[in-house]
Specification:
- Helices cover 57% and strands 0% of the residues.
- By secondary structure, the protein is mainly α.
- It has one domain: Four Helix Bundle (Hemerythrin (Met), subunit A).
- It is globular.
- It starts with 5 loop residues before the first helix and ends with a helix.
């Protein structure tokens, strides 16, 4: 199942409003759809391709390690990043669904060091592991989740993204991942093109 986030991106709906349209089973299906999409992109790559450094003139990550703020993200880096973000927001959704409020800090986030991911098999492993983790977080939801419990976030965050209950929080992480799909495709394209040039040479 594929969730379309365009109404949120166009500010016609908040994630909270969008999430009300979907069941927990829908969230499970959408999670697998996103991961399967990335696995499909990765399927034609080899070990060298997943660590190929792409050209990205728009690269800008103020939270990156010094010297890495403007580097293009390779496939391994993208896999580490999107899985960490989706798992983080799935963790918040589990707490909220069980009636537990949670503040903005500390963040419930761990990101696999991207430089430690050196092979296609490691990318696939991380994606499948993330699928298992996220689906497990959904399994922690009670049959009747507490939909009126919200994460305690800054006014600035809420003004930009809206209030976050359990379904909205889960979708927030998933939307972030889906929004990186085209970046995955472009990096894979560049990696395959570079490989073809080497073979021709």
């Amino acid at each position: 199942m594929r969730i379309h986030y365009k109404p949120v991106e166009e500010r016609k709906l908040t994630l909270l409003e969008l999430s009300a349209r979907y069941s927990v089973d829908d969230l499970r299906a959408a999670t697998s759809d996103s991961i399967d999409t990335i696995l499909d992109i990765v399927s034609g790559l080899n070990d060298a391709d997943v660590i190929f450094d792409p050209v990205d003139p728009h690269a800008h990550d103020p939270y990156a390690a010094p010297g890495e703020e403007k580097i293009g993200w390779n496939i391994a880096h993208l896999v580490a990043h999107v899985t960490a973000s989706s798992e983080e927001w799935a963790a918040y959704s589990s707490l909220l669904a069980r009636g537990i409020t949670y503040p903005a800090e500390p963040r419930l986030r761990y990101e696999t060091p991207w430089r430690a991911i050196l092979t296609k098999a490691q990318c696939v492993q991380r994606l499948e592991e993330s699928r298992r983790i996220r689906l497990a977080y959904l399994d922690t939801w009670p049959n009747e989740p507490h939909l009126h419990v919200f994460r305690q976030l800054s006014e600035r965050f809420i003004e930009r993204h809206g209030a976050m209950n359990a379904p909205a929080a889960f979708l927030f992480g998933l939307m972030h991942e889906v929004n990186h799909h085209d970046q995955f495709r472009e990096v894979a394209r560049q990696a395959l093109a570079a490989r073809a040039l080497v073979l021709e040479g």
